[in-house]
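User: Show me an example of a complex going from sequences to structure tokens.

Assistant: Sure. Here are the input components:
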Amino acid sequence: MAQTVAQPTATTPAIPAKLPLKAIAPWAVFFGILMLVLLYFVGAEQGATSVLNGTDVHEWVHDARHLLGFPCH
Amino acid sequence: MNSATVRNLLVRGMLAGLAAGVLALIAAYFLGEPSVDKAIGFEDAHAHEHEMEVVSRSLQSTAGLATGVLVYGVAFGGIAALAFCFALGRVGRFGPRATALLLSGTALLAVYVVPFLKYPANPPSVGDPDTIGKRTTLYFLMMLLGVLLAVATTLLGKRLAPGLGNWWATVVAVAAFAVVTGLAYRFLPAVNEVPRDFPATLLWRFRLSALAIQTVLWGGFGLAFGELAERLLNPAPAKAATGRAVPAAH
């Protein structure tokens, strides 16, 4: 009996507490940029622009670049 | 305390991205690679001069593919986890699991489907090497546009909700998203560089497999990250829910 009474309050979804923007910002800036750099190397390095010389990065991730939808060559 | 929560969510996002990347890699290897091989076969049959192989095909289709897909999974997992930190408790009455799945579906739409419908994925031998700069710029621009529009749609929905109610606010905001995306499609330059005799079925299969890879990636990420986030943020209710399942079975 106690369970049927307890159930409605337990299943009512509570709005989760917001994380303060000040706590998120440093992580978002630093890791956001880091993640974008990773995406750049998978998606565009040695294609449209090059930071490193040669074509090794391009050739190594060649299939992933095609299959993930990035313009390749 | 809150900064530690953000760090924990970020780590979990990258791990969930890695796990989703493994699933996407399986999809890419079995669904995508056969089309890539056939397209390279077409390229070799039509090329006048043969390029020297820097990385062998067997490495490109295994270790190379794995590197690309897993790094992509981890990177987007991290970004999505940071977006989740902003979204949690701010987008509506959604718990961690529902927020994660909603976010992940939106991300699939914003960073993949929106660019894909205008500039779809192309197999080897489709695409003029001379226009790579223009095509890359347009593609990243569409990704950025997708993300900005998704954020704008969410803010618009929140703004309209008190007046229209949640349902109609969502309908109006999503309709605005569709209209603006359609206008962008209309005014951005078209790219069509498919060789005249390239097999249409091969192009269709390649593009379908590319879409499948992303669906697996984001679907897997939403479920995995949602579970990890739920366990981190709501450890007690999750235990109570499983405990209650036993008496309910009588």
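The lines above are the inputs; the final block is the predicted structure for all two components together. Residues 127-193 of chain B form one domain.
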